[in-house]
Amino acid sequence: MEAFHLLSRGGAKFDKSKFKSDVNLFNGKKSKAANASTSARAPEGELPPELDFFKYAQGGQGKRKASEPNGGADAKGKKRRVEEDEDTEDEDADEAEQAAEEDDPPMPRHRVTTKGNNVPEHVETFEALRERYNIPSRLLQNIAQSGYKRPTGIQSHGIPILLEHRDLAAISPTGTGKTLSYLLPVMSALGAPAASSKSNPGSGVRALILAPTRELAHQIHNECLKLAQGRKWKIVLFSKATAATLADKKVREKIDLIISTPLRLVASLQAGNLELNNVRHIVLDEADRMLDAEFLEQVQEVIAACTHPEVQKAVFSATLPANAEKVAMSMLRDPIRVVVGLKDTPLPLIAQSLTYVADDQSKLPTLLQYLSQPYNPPVLIFVSSQPRATSLAEELVISGVPNVDCLHAGMTMKEREDAVSRMRRGESWVMVSTEVMARGMDFKGVREVINYDFPQSVQSYIHRIGRTGRAGREGKAITYFTNEDAPFLKTIANVLLQSGSTVPEWILKLPKPSKMKRREMGKVKRAEAVNNARRIGRSDAIKKRDMVAASKRRKAKETQSKTDGATSSPHADGADGESA
DNA sequence: AAAAAAC
C-alpha cells in the first residue's frame, strides 16, 4: 500500500507545468474543433435528427424502445442530434481560477420541452430574473463572480419554475448546470439567516438537498458556499461529525440549509436530533438513483419528516427511466416536467466507442497498451467493484503508469477526500473508480472515460461517460466489452448511435437476446464473477506484495498492544483488507 | 439484472 502511494504520487515523475501546458494546448485545439463542428452541423439543419427529437421529446416516456429500430437502420452520423447544451456548471471552490483560464467553450443550445399547468416563462439572462422576481442582487453578483454568464437550457427554464414555488421534475444532460438550477432559487428564497431571527420560532432548516454520494454532496456544498458569499446562512454538509453537534437544540435551530446523503439524515431523525418541520424546499439530485430500491425508503422517511404544508419539491437528473419518473411524479404536487435535449441520451460532444476484449484477462493488456500511447489526462476508469478498483490501480502503478489514483467507498473518508482533491488539482492522470464517481461529479478537466468493466445499465453508462464533455467541452469515452457482456451490448450500442457515435455493423446485427437467454447468461456471468473477478490481474508482483503485507499485518497485530496508534499507515490495512 | 453506495 505504501509502495502504491509512493509510486503513484512519485514526485519526480510528475511535471505539473508540463501537464498544464498540455492541457492548454488541448483546450485551444478542442474548442476550435468544437466550434467548427457546431457551425457545420447546426445550419445544415439535419432534419432527420430534429424530427426524431420532437418525436421523442413530445412523446414523453418510453422513448428508448421507440428509438431502437431506427437507431439500427439509419446508423451513423445521422443520429447526431443538435448540439446541445452546455453551460458553465462549474465546479468547485478551488476551481475558480481554472474556470477563468479555460473560459467559455461554445454553448450550443438544447431543445427544451415542458409539460404541466401554467408553466412560467423562461428567462434568457440572469439579469431578467432580477427584474421579474426581484432576487437578491448579492446572489446575482456571486453568480457572475463564479463565472456563470448565460443560463443554460435547464437554468433558463427551471429557475423561474422554482422561483414561483412550483414542483419540478427536471431532466437535463450531464454537465449542463443542474446544480445552479436548484441552488439559485433555493438560496433566493432563503431569506434571513435562522440565527438572526431568534424571536421567530418558525426558522431553522428551510431547505434540504439530497444526493447519493458523499463526494457529490460535498461538491454541491462547495457550489453553495460560492453562491452564499456575503450572507450569514448556516449551510451544513451533513456528516457524522456535524450530526454529533445536533444534540444541542440551539445548534440545529441555526441551520438554514442542509446538504446530505439520505441515510445520514435518517439516522439523525431517528435519534431525535433533527427537526425538518419547517423545510420549504427539498431537492433530490440524481433523482432516479435516489428513488431506486435501496434509497427510496430512506428518502421517503426524510420527506415524511418535512411536514410543512408548503414544501416545494424538485427532482433533477440526466436520466429518469419511466418507473423512476412515476415514483417521482407521485411525490410532486402539480408538477412541471422539463426535458432538455433527449431524455436518456448522452451528449454528442462525447465521442464514444466500443472495444472488444474477449475476456476479463484481456482487459489489462488492452488498457496498458492504450496508456502506453499518448492520451489526454486525466482519464477516469470505471470498474465494477471496490476490490477491482484497488487491484487495477495497483496493477497500473506496478506497470509504471504515472500518477495513478483510486477512489471507492471502501476507502476512509479522508482517503476519498484526498483523492478528489488530487483530481481537482489535476494531479491524477489516471483515476480508477467505482460507481461512486459515476454521477454528478464535475471535474472539468476529464477528457477521457474508460469503462473497463461494462456498465450495468444504460443509466450507469450515460452518467459514467458524462464525467467528460462537461460545460460544452468535448470528451471521449471508451467501453470495453467481453463475450460475457454480449447480452447487454446492443442496448448500449443503441445509446451510442442515438448520440451521434458510430458502432460497428456487426454489433448492430446482433439479435436482441430474449429475456430468458439474458437471464441465463446473467447466471453464468455471476458464477464466473464469484470465481475470478474479484481481482484484476493478479500479477506475481502483486501476489508477492500481498503476502508481505499480510505477514506485516500479522506481526503488527502481535505487537499491537504495545505500540498501538503508532503504525505509520493505519489506513493501508483498511483499503487493502480484501486481499485475502 | 446486479453491484455500489448510504451508516
UniProtKB/TrEMBL annotation:
Domain of life from the UniProt record: Eukaryota
Gene Ontology biological process terms in this record: maturation of SSU-rRNA
Motif placement: Q motif: 128-156
Domain DEAD-box RNA helicase Q: start-end pairs: 128-156
Biased composition (Basic and acidic residues): 537-547
Gene Ontology molecular function: any one: hydrolase activity
InterPro entries named among the record's database cross-references: DDX52/Rok1_DEADc, DEAD/DEAH_box_helicase_dom, DEAD_box_RNA_helicase, Helic_SF1/SF2_ATP-bd_DinG/Rad3, Helicase_ATP-bd, Helicase_C-like, P-loop_NTPase, RNA-helicase_DEAD-box_CS
A family per Pfam: DEAD
Keyword terms of this UniProt record: ATP-binding, Helicase, Hydrolase, Nucleotide-binding, Nucleus, Ribosome biogenesis, RNA-binding
Domain Helicase C-terminal: 363-511
Catalytic activity: ATP + H2O = ADP + phosphate + H(+)
GO cellular component: cytosol; nucleus
Bias (Low complexity): 33-42
Main location: nucleus
Keyword Hydrolase part of the UniProt annotation: yes
Start and end residues of each stretch annotated as Disordered: 17-116, 532-580
Bias (Acidic residues) ranges: 84-105
Keyword Nucleotide-binding: yes
EC number: 3.6.4.13
Family assignment from sequence similarity: Belongs to the DEAD box helicase family. DDX52/ROK1 subfamily.
Name of the molecule in the record: RNA helicase
Species of the source: Polyporus arcularius HHB13444
